[in-house]
C-alpha cells in the first residue's frame, strides 16, 4: 500500500507538470486502484462505476474506512460539487481516509477529471 501511494504520488506529479487537462489521462494514476467498469473487481480501491449520484462508500463489495462508512450512514451522496472538493484535498474532507492521494490543485484539471468520472465513454 505504501509503495502504491509513492508510485501514485510520482504519477500525479508528472501529470500536473504537463498541465494536461484530459480526463482520461488524469484518471490514469487512479486506475492502479480504481475501475470505472462495474464488472472489474479485485483492485485495491472501490469500484467507481456510476460514481456521481451514488452514495458515498457505495461499492457494496468494498470494505471502507470508518470515516467513509460514517458518511454513508449519514446518507451523503457524491455530487459534482462534493467530488470537486474531495479531489482538491481528500484527507481534509475525510480525515482518516484510507487513500493516500495528493489533492489536485488545478481547478481545470479537477473539472476535466470530473467530466471523465461522470461519463468515461465520452472521452
Ligand atoms: C493507492 C490506491 C489508490 C489510488 C491511486 C487512488 N485511490 Fe481512490 N481510493 C482508494 C481507497 C483504498 C479508497 C477507500 C478509502 C477509504 O475507505 O477510506 C478510495 C476511495 C475513493 C473514492 C470514494 C469512493 C466511494 O465509493 O465513495 C473516490 C471518489 C476516489 N477514491 C477517487 C480517486 C481518484 C479520482 C483517484 C485518482 C486521482 C484515486 N482515487 C486514486 C485507493 C486509491
Keywords:
single chain, 123 residues, mainly alpha, Cytochrome Bc1 Complex, Chain D, domain 2, globular, binds heme C
Structural commentary:
This protein has 123 residues and is mainly alpha-helical. The protein has one domain (2-122): Orthogonal Bundle (Cytochrome Bc1 Complex, Chain D, domain 2), CATH 1.10.760.10. Helix content is 45%, strand content 0%. The protein has six helices and no strands. The chain has helices spanning 2-18, 23-27, 66-73, 80-88, 90-93, 107-118. Helix 4 packs across helix 6. The protein is globular. It starts with a helix and ends in a 5-residue tail after the last helix. The model has no long low-confidence stretch (mean pLDDT 87).
Summarize, please.
The protein has helices at residues 2-18, 23-27, 66-73, 80-88, 90-93, 107-118.
SSE layout and pairings?
Layout: H1 2-18, H2 23-27, H3 66-73, H4 80-88, H5 90-93, H6 107-118
Helix pairs in contact: 4-6
Bound molecules: heme C (HEC).
Query: How far is the first residue's CA from the last residue's CA?
Result: 29 Å
Count of separate structural domains: 1
Give me the CATH fold name: Cytochrome Bc1 Complex, Chain D, domain 2
Give the percentage of residues in beta strands: under 5%
Q: Roughly how many Å is the radius of gyration?
A: 14 Å
Bound small molecules, which ones? heme C
User: At the fourth CATH level, what is the homologous superfamily?
Assistant: Cytochrome c-like domain
- The dominant shape is globular
Q: Look at the helices and sheets and give the structural class.
A: mainly alpha
Amino acid at each position: 500500500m505504501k509503495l502504491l501511494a509513492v508510485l501514485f504520488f510520482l504519477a500525479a506529479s508528472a501529470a500536473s507538470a504537463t498541465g494536461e487537462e484530459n480526463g482520461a489521462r488524469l484518471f490514469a494514476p487512479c486506475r492502479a486502484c480504481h475501475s470505472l467498469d462495474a464488472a472489474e473487481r479485485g483492485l485495491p480501491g472501490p469500484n467507481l462505476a456510476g460514481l456521481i449520484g451514488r452514495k458515498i462508500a457505495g461499492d457494496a463489495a468494498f470494505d471502507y474506512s470508518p470515516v467513509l462508512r460514517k458518511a454513508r450512514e449519514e446518507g451523503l451522496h457524491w455530487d459534482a460539487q462534493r467530488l470537486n472538493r474531495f479531489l482538491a484535498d481528500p484527507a481534509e474532507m475525510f480525515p482518516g481516509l484510507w487513500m493516500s492521494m495528493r489533492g489536485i490543485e488545478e481547478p481545470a484539471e479537477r473539472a476535466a477529471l470530473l467530466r471523465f468520472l461522470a461519463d468515461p465513454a465520452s472521452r
